[in-house]
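I had to read the description of the data format several times before I understood it. For illustration, here is how one protein appears when written out as sequence plus structure tokens:
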Amino acid sequence: MTIAQIMALVRDAVIVAAIAFFCWKLVDYGEDQVQVSEFRALQAQVLHNSQLQQQWNKQKEQADEQRIADLASIGARIDAQHAPIIVRVPAASGPGPLPGPTPATGSADTGSGGIDIRPRINLFEHRYETALADCRAALAAWPKEKP
């Protein structure tokens, strides 16, 4: 090999290496660059999100505590209602085609032609108030972001 061939070989190797380096830099240039300002903004967003999550957890705990208190007061208030609600059954006016109404199961017949519907009303009120307490708790636990 002559000196001219060796120099041509070294020159071609340097050119190929330079082209490869240029292509590698071109491909790698915009791939994983993160600006410091973007990183700080991301850290601030993560901090804000964690504060919101803590606030929402606190709101949910307060809503659950309020629901428990509501359910306890509902049960105590409804159980305190003992006054009977009497519904009078009309007397049969004669031999009609249909029999008169009979007392419902679970209602006490007072013996004077009336039916005490207090237990059924208390049961209905308990179910209704429990459903309302559940709805109030769900709305109170809904995440609210304070501005």
Notes: The mean pLDDT is 82. The helical segments are 3-28, 36-79, 118-141. The chain has three helices and three strands. The first strand starts at residue 86 and ends at 88.
